[in-house]
Amino acid sequence: MHTKSAAKRLRQTKKRTARNRKWKQKAKTLLKTSRAQLASKDAKATESLVETISTIDRAIRKGALHRNTGARMKSRLLKRLHTYAQH
To answer: Which of 83, 78, 68 is nearest to 34 (CA)?
Structure first.
């Protein structure tokens, strides 16, 4: 049997984990689509890129992603953009 406070912490953890997982998954999905669009030189790639970066920033603000992780994701994405833009 858990104490009342331990039971509450378990409930809170469950909610927070679900919330963080949602934001992480959303960021990963958008990253994947942005990469694919950049590789295929799709016209909508820049719009997708803006949405992806804003979602990553939002996930950082919400605490779902660490700021360095988010920065690394954005950096790699922009690096790809510049690579494909040159060729």
So the answer is: 78
Please spell the DSSP secondary structure of the chain, one letter per residue: ---HHHHHHHHHHHHHHHHHHHHHHHHHHHHHHHHHHHHTT-TTHHHHHHHHHHHHHHHHHHTSS-HHHHHHHHHHHHHHHHHHHH-
Residue 54: CB atoms within 10 Å: 11
Q: How far apart are CA 69 and CA 65, in angstroms?
A: 7
What whole-number distance in Å separates Cα of residue 26 and Cα of residue 20? 10
Q: Are 34 and 49 in contact (CB under 8 A)?
A: yes
pTM, to two decimals: 0.87
Residue 86 pLDDT exceeds 80: no
Residue 20's Cβ-count burial label (10 Å; 0-12, 13-18, 19+) is: middle
